[in-house]
Specification:
It is a single chain. This protein has about 400 residues and is an alpha+beta fold. The protein folds into 3 domains: about 240 residues, Alpha-Beta Complex (3-hydroxy-3-methylglutaryl-coenzyme A Reductase, Chain A, domain 2), CATH 3.90.770; about 100 residues, Hydroxymethylglutaryl-CoA reductase, class I/II, NAD/NADP-binding domain (Alpha-Beta Plaits), CATH 3.30.70.420; about 50 residues. Helix content is about 50%, strand content about 20%. It has a 4-stranded antiparallel sheet with strand order 3-8-10-9. Helix 10 crosses helix 14 and helix 11 runs antiparallel to helix 12. The longest helix is centred in the last third of the chain and has 24 residues. The radius of gyration is 24 Å and the shape is globular. The protein starts with 12 loop residues before the first helix and ends with a helix. The protein binds (R)-mevalonate. (R)-mevalonate binds next to helix 11 and helix 14.
């Protein structure tokens, strides 16, 4: 089934659910999960000091075709217009859609060694015993060993007077944090013996330069118009040369990526840290790139480190997060990373398109009008009526909404 669904935003919740059901071949149990509410005792087993559960809306981004497969993509966030923009961005990339490739799942764990009597001697001792260290680390995960994954190599560098040992670990379809930290803590005693130093921190790095995703799309030049194509390319150059703009540019990318991570209950803070550290490796800059092809189409690409898993993690604790994974039909962590990178690219393209053409406030405020109406006390039918009236009067503000609520109540 095609993910290019006309008028999805105008449908009722029931109609949307039926389309999602058919698209993703959902069972009755899956459909029930849409209305499932996690209870506070389950939540209390997830984190500490629970007193309630946060409500975040979850919507669907349509129009995505990635590596010749159609996707409906769940996104969860509080900001209006992001999902609409993302779906719109994906529409410009059709009929071919996005291409994406993820390099695999190599992650890096770090052991910080201080008071090492002779760091150069210690480095050689570590390297001479490399195979033993890797073997010891790999005893911590039968699953990874059986997959021929696990700890693979060692890298050493010096920071001030300290010796930093990095272990490179193939975490396969896991996000990797737990297994990496377990391996590091397990081998650190032996590393102390070898080096005569003391191990301080033993922790994964959230910068995953060996776990990177590439995505690419050709955005239709005719739909965009030649002027907008040129203005988007200029906007990207602006981001390359101005850190204030680059930050906002990348924030737009993360709008999409974080929303999918939230809908699937993944660690979006890890991804935020990863993305921004990577963007700063050659001096902070944009994570996307744009150019024009000979036919006037806009070629967009993104190269971004992404570390997400499809096994382990919190996803399985939440029926709704599991459902989100099922809606996308994700088979492994590479496919998940591909989706995230494409969403980031579509989101960034959509923001640049709007900014370079009509500006974002028009569309954004129109969608935000309903939020403002609710904040001013509107309920039921009143919300849509007040939002529409504010849009038509071109006065979308809390004050206008409050006056309208009062007037509706008095009528
Ligand atoms: C708003 O959440 C995101 C944008 O500011 C991104 C951008 O400016 O590229 C629209």
């Amino acid at each position: 089934m095609d993910s290019l669904i006309h008028g999805f935003h105008k449908m009722s919740i029931e109609e949307r659910r039926n389309i999602i059901r058919e698209f993703s071949n959902l069972s009755t149990e899956d459909m029930e999960a849409m209305d499932y509410r996690m209870d506070t005792s389950t939540a209390g087993n997830m984190i500490e000091n629970v007193y309630t559960i946060m409500d975040y809306p979850v919507g669907i981004a349509t129009n995505f075709r990635i590596n010749d497969r159609e996707y409906l993509i769940p996104m969860s966030l509080e900001e209006p217009s992001v999902i609409a923009a993302c779906s719109n961005g994906a529409r410009y990339a059709r009929p071919n859609g996005f291409m994406a490739y993820s390099t695999g799942s190599y992650m890096r764990g770090e052991i910080e060694l201080y008071d090492v009597p002779d760091p150069d001697y210690a480095a050689i001792k570590i390297l001479q015993n490399k195979e033993k260290i890797l073997k010891m680390a790999n005893t911590r995960s039968k699953t990874l060993s059986n997959l021929d994954a696990g700890a693979k190599s060692i890298d050493i560098h010096y920071v001030n007077n300290e010796l930093i040992l990095n272990i490179i670990i193939d975490v396969a379809d896991a996000m990797g944090a737990n297994i990496i930290n377990t391996m590091l803590e397990y081998v650190s005693g032996y590393i102390e013996e070898l080096t005569g130093g003391k191990a301080n921190l033993r922790i994964m790095s959230n910068l995953t330069t060996e776990r990177v995703t590439y995505a690419y799309a050709k955005f239709d030049g005719k739909m965009l118009g030649a002027e907008t194509v040129d203005r988007i390319i200029k906007a990207n150059e602006f981001a390359k040369n101005d850190i204030f703009r680059a930050t906002t540019h990348n924030k737009g990318i993360m709008n999409g990526i974080d929303a999918v991570l939230l809908a699937t209950m993944n660690d979006f803070r890890a991804q935020e840290a990863n993305s921004h550290a990577y963007a700063s490796m050659g001096g902070y800059g944009p994570l996307t790139e744009y150019r024009k092809d000979a036919d006037g189409n806009l070629i967009g690409s993104i190269k971004i480190p992404i570390a997400v898993g499809t096994v382990g993690g919190a996803t399985k604790t939440s029926k709704k997060a599991m459902l989100a994974m099922k809606i996308m039909g994700i088979q492994n962590s590479n496919e998940f990373s591909n989706i995230l990178a494409c969403v980031g690219l579509a989101q960034n393209f959509a923001a640049l398109r709007a900014l370079a053409a009509e500006g974002i406030q028009k569309g954004h405020m129109k969608l935000h009008a309903r939020n403002i109406a609710i904040a001013a006390g509107a309920t039921g039918d009143m919300i849509e009526k007040i939002a529409a009236e504010m849009v038509s009067e071109k006065n979308i503000s809390y004050t206008a909404a409050t006056e309208m609520v009062k007037r509706f109540r008095d009528e």
